[in-house]
Each structure stands twice: as C-alpha cells, then as structure tokens.
Specification:
Layout: H1 3-21, E1 24-30, E2 40-43, H2 44-47, H3 49-64, H4 70-96, H5 98-110, E3 117-121, H6 124-161, H7 165-194
Antiparallel strand pairs: 1-2, 1-3
InterPro entries: Trp_biosyn_TM_oprn/chp
Keywords: Membrane, Transmembrane, Transmembrane helix
Protein name: Trp biosynthesis-associated membrane protein
Length: about 200
C-alpha cells in the first residue's frame, strides 16, 4: 500500500467515527406506573464522550501525515493506533452496559439516574468501531512502512531525474551521426582543393 492510500484510510476511518458519534446510539423507553415519561435518544457524543475527542485527534494526525517525514509519520502512526484502540474500548464499554452509559442523560432528562424501562442500542456504535479499526490499521501500517516509503520515494525521484537508456542511445546516435557528417565535410573540402576549387566559395 502507498502512503497516500494509508493516509486516506486513516482520514476515512476518523470521519466515519465522527459521523457515527453524532447519531443516536441508545434509545430509552422509560416505564412508569403513574405518569407517561418521554422516550430518550442518546447520541454517541453523550454516551461515550471520549469518542469524539479521539476521532478528532486521529483526523488531525492523519492530515499531518501528508506533510510529515519518516520520524513524524511513525509518531503519527502510533497516535492513530492508540486513538483507534481508545475508540474501540469506549464503544465496547457503551455496548456492554447500555444503562450505565445512558444514566447521565437519563438523569438530566427525567431527574433520576436509574430508571426502569427498555434500553436498546442502534447500529451506529458498530460503524464507529469500523472507523476505529480503519484508523488503527492505518496507524500500524504507517509506523511499520514509513521508512520504506521514504526509500521508494527517493528511488522514484532518481528514476525521474536519470535519463533513460533509450534517451542515451538516441543522444549517442545523434552525436555519432554529427561526427560522421563533419568527417565527410572535411573530406569533401580536401577533394575540392585537389581539383583546384575553392570550397569556401558560394
């Protein structure tokens, strides 16, 4: 994989996490024997506050990779990998205990942190995990391949600057042809002098 492909993969993963975090992760239908309570939709930003911060960090790191050198890309690769791990851990924490993740928002909405009812999650947390996996994989590849990309780039630049074999052959043939023409011009001039002609006369 090229550095551009890996960087685009990291950016795509970070954007996917950001998009997923703005959507509803948990849907709560509280139950009450006395009054009817409103249903509550909790976004990823509220259910797992660290997800947005980590995805922004991953996006900034991926963007910086486009201008970074070998050492910088390796550091960025580590940041991407750690951000991906953090997002995955935070998302699994939400999925493993939905009621605890929803407690703060439910408490602010209803005035009590623990409410009986139905707590269900949507598919958006899984898309966040997918984006985190992309960022993590891109970070690992970038850390391992950063030095190799630098070598490949130098080789490509050297190939562009060095003349090709065909160009050298053409230049050699042109030089040989020019030398032969000059040689024949000299012979023609001596023949003209031998006949008593002035070769410089037009």
């Amino acid at each position: 994989m090229t550095s551009r492909q890996v960087t685009l993969g990291a950016i795509l993963g970070a954007l996917l996490v950001l998009a997923a975090a703005t959507q509803t992760w948990i849907h709560v239908v509280p139950t009450s024997t006395s009054v009817r309570l409103p249903e509550i939709d909790i976004s990823g930003n509220d259910a797992a506050t660290s997800v947005t911060a980590l995805s922004v960090a991953a996006l900034a790191a991926a963007a910086a990779a486009t201008i970074a050198r070998v050492v910088g890309r390796r550091i960025i690769g580590v940041i991407l990998a750690l951000s991906g791990i953090g997002i995955i851990a935070a998302t699994f924490s939400v999925l493993s205990n939905i009621q605890a993740a929803a407690a703060t928002t439910v408490g602010e909405t209803l005035g009590q942190s623990v409410t009986e009812g139905s707590y269900t999650h949507t598919f958006w947390p899984y898309l966040a995990i997918l984006g985190a996996v992309l960022a993590f994989a891109a970070g690992i590849v970038m850390t391992v391949r950063a030095g190799r990309w630098a070598v490949d780039r130098r080789h490509a630049q050297g190939a562009e600057q060095a003349p090709s074999q065909a160009e050298l052959s053409q230049k050699g043939a042109a030089a040989s042809s020019s030398s032969k023409n000059e040689k024949w011009d000299d012979i023609d001039s001596w023949d003209s002098l031998s006949r008593g002609d002035d070769p410089t006369a037009t």
